[in-house]
Each structure stands twice: as structure tokens, then as C-alpha cells.
Amino acid sequence: MLVTGPNGAGKTNLLEALHVGTQGFSPRTRSDAQLVRFGAAAGRVRLAGARGDVPVETEVTLSPSAARRASLNGARLRAAEQLRGELQTLVFTPDRLAIVKGAPAVRRAYFDRSLGRLIPARASLAAEYSAAVVQRNAALRRVAAGLSSADALEPWTERVAALGSELTAARREAVAALDGPFGMQAGALGLERARLRYDAEAPSVADLEARLSRDLERGTTGLGPHLEDVEILAVDRDLRSFGSQGEQRVAVLSLLMAEATLIEKRRGVPPLLLLDDVLSELDGSRRAALTASIPAAGQALITSTDVSALGREPDRLVLVAPGSAS
To answer: Which residues contact 35 (CB under 8 A, 6 or more apart)?
Structure first.
């Protein structure tokens, strides 16, 4: 589906509404006040579709002054973001270039979300590990202040080591699964010899205890997967430091399409793809390569100001004008 119209007409708003309705949150902001129309008390996104052969209906209600509410097929969810565990949606917006050119924390967050989508049983692992690190850091500060004995650190050190080992292994599995499809997709888009590298070693209890004096001095855990990075490379160049903006854009798109391929293969249902302004900096051959890689059984929404940007007839064309769509 190609969504086209002038700048400011609401194309991105449509894309954002689809993300809210399938994932329970906006890809742009976590403030519901920014999602509700000026002067309105609340907003609602209601969607109907299918996951494979199974009908799906979702509803998400947003309010600046109340908690977000969501339902799936009429059943109220405990939290709106539970939708992301049920429905798979991948989004590209121009600010997603931060996945490549941003700080390591941005890449860790991205690959941990990918890990959850590719290995659902491990979806909560990154959050569990992060919570353990927070608890160990608090214990370190209490010990340093003389408010607790060093013995209080031991269970948190053991938990950080155990969960850190699990998270490191799960990240390696996810990165290894993405690496091949990522390289193939990037090559089709003109980025040669692209690959992913994650060389982290899991922290052991002995490793954490060996640097205990430094951790006590700083009040933080200075070793573990919360500090590691995933490198995104092309011809052995780290694209964060040595990639052009065009190469970084291709890398992010290639990551997204690689994950879409794996989700379809592993879950049997392709994800919904939301691609905002992806065509403006791609030439004709790269546009063709990108659209050819979209899973045939899936659905993709692509926004553009140019009705001819796709290079072929879209399956469906939506024309957006301020306040309307047709």
C-alpha cells in the first residue's frame, strides 16, 4: 500500500496510528498527550484485520490524564504494550538511523527488541537482566556508604552473572540469525559485504568479584551485556563512524527487512511493515530491490509525497489530504 500526499497532510499520523493499534505505543513518543488531538479529551485507535487466517480486532484508548487502555478481540489487556507480544509490526522512520549512528545503548535496545520478536520465550530476558543490574548497583552504593555488609551483594552478583550469561547467549543467537539475511538484503541495496558482529563475553561471578573495588567506588556494575555493543559493518568498516548517511539508511532498512524475513519463517505469519519516507533517497534499482523483498503474503504501508516513487503500481493507493484519506 502506497500512502501519498503533500507534506503535513497526515501520512505519518496514519502510520503512527497503525503502530499504536498493533503495538500499544507510538514509535515517536511515549507521551499520550502528544497523540491526542488538540482540545480533545481522549483518542482511540480501532483496527480490524487478520493474522494469517485468524480475524483480529484491536482497540487502544489514549488520554492525557489516564492510563492507556487496550483490548484484543474484545478482551481487555493488562497493559497496552501486551499487543506487541501478539502482533508483529516493524517500522522505519527517518529517526531510526540512530540504530546505526547512535550510541551503543540505542543498538542494544534495538537488538533486544528483535531478540524478543525472534525468540518470544526470551522476550523478557533483557528487562530481567536490567532489573538485576539496578538492584546490584543499589546494593553497591549501600555497601560503599556503610549501610550494608558485602554479603548483601552476593545474591545480586550471582543473579547478574546468571542472567548476563543468558542474555549474551540469546543476543548471539539473534544476531547470528539476522546476519545472513541482513548481508543479502544490504547487498541488494548496494551495500556490499555488510555484516553484524557481537563479540561479547558473558560475565562470570569471578569476573564481577575481581572488579568489586572499582564497582564499589563508582556505585555501578562495570561489566556485562548492559555495556556491550553490536557492530554494524560493511567491508569491515564500522558504519557508525565510517558510513555515509546513505549507507546508514540502507543498513537500517536491511535490518528491518532481514527481521521481517525471519519472523515470517519462524512464526508463519509475516509482520506488518510501516515504512515512512523510505524511497526519497533510493534510486530506481534500490527501490525495486526494497519492494521485491517485502514478504508476498504480508502487508506493507509505504509513505511518500510522490505517487510515482514506488516505481510500479501499488496494490493499493491511498491519497491523503489534510483531514481526509481516500
So the answer is: 16, 20, 26, 29, 43, 62
Domains detected in the chain? 102-244 (1.20.1050.90)
Residue in the block written with cell 510522490: 306
257/264 Cα distance (integer angstroms): 11
User: At what angle are helices 245-267 and 154-188 packed, to 10 degrees?
Assistant: 100
Kindly tell me if the per-residue pLDDT of 32 is higher than 70. yes
Q: At 296, is the pLDDT very low, low, confident or very high (cuts 50, 70, 90)?
A: low
Helix H segments across the chain?
11-23, 83-86, 98-101, 104-118, 125-144, 154-188, 205-210, 212-218, 239-242, 245-267, 284-292
- Which helix (DSSP H) or strand (DSSP E) does residue 295 occupy? none
The model's pTM: 0.90
Q: Identify whether the C-beta of residue 58 lies closer than 8 Å to the C-beta of residue 70.
A: yes
Residue of 225, 298, 256, 309 lying closest to 49 (CA atoms): 298
Please tell me the distance from the alpha carbon of residue 74 to that of residue 81, in angstroms, as a whole number: 16
The amino acid present at 138, given as its one-letter code, is: A
